[in-house]
Amino acid sequence: MVIDSTTEKGARVAQWLRDDIVAWLVTVTPDGTPVPTPVWFWWDGESILIYSQRDKPKLRHIASNPRVALALTVNDVGDLRAVLTGNAAVDETAPGADELPEYIDKYRDEIARLGSDPSQFAGEYSVAIRMTPTKLRAW
């Protein structure tokens, strides 16, 4: 397991994965250019679920190169806290965002701030990306 929550560092990272609202998903274009994109995400203890709108560049990038990174947010003084690297793929078997109560609980206020509700949000962000971390760097 990449994140061992029985260790001090692993417990901190697991907490950030549960609580942070935005992370940066870094995909790679076919010419090798890294592209960071802010995303909402759900950590299930083993993988990270991200919901995307259809026809977004990150989906094309992942289709051509599944290697990705997820950078957890910086703190107030600009320190990066953790970077997970691994593989990502569209997950056709994942539940819709509105079918995952934990995801909706985490993002209910943000979804409302967008003027949406969980059902509308799930309709617009209907493509599930599942990232499986293989390495962790944390400070």
Structure characteristics:
Pnp Oxidase, Chain A; 139 residues; single chain; alpha+beta; 7 strands; 29% helix; 7-stranded antiparallel beta sheet; globular
How is this structure best described in words?
29% of the residues lie in helices and 33% in strands. It has 139 residues and is of the alpha+beta class. The protein has one domain (8-93, 126-138): Roll (Pnp Oxidase, Chain A). A hairpin with a 5-residue loop joins strand 1 (23-28) and strand 2 (34-39). The longest helix has 13 residues, at 101-113. The model has no long low-confidence stretch (mean pLDDT 93).
Mean pLDDT figure? 93
Helix content: 25-40%
Q: Can you summarize the main beta sheet?
A: 7 strands, antiparallel
Number of self-contained structural domains = 1
Which strand order spans the largest sheet, edge to edge or round the barrel? 2-1-5-6-7-4-3
- CATH superfamily descriptor: Electron Transport, Fmn-binding Protein, Chain A
The low-confidence parts are: none
User: In angstroms, what separates the terminal alpha carbons?
Assistant: 18 Å
Number of strands: 7
Task: State the oligomer.
Answer: single chain
From the alpha carbons, calculate the radius of gyration and give it in angstroms: 15 Å
Strand content: 25-35%
- How many helix segments? 4
What characteristic shape results from the CA principal axes? globular
The class by helix and strand makeup works out as alpha+beta
Quickly name the level 1 CATH class: Mainly Beta
Series of H and E elements: HEEEEHEEHHE
Can you tell me the CATH architecture? Roll
Write down the CATH topology.
Pnp Oxidase, Chain A
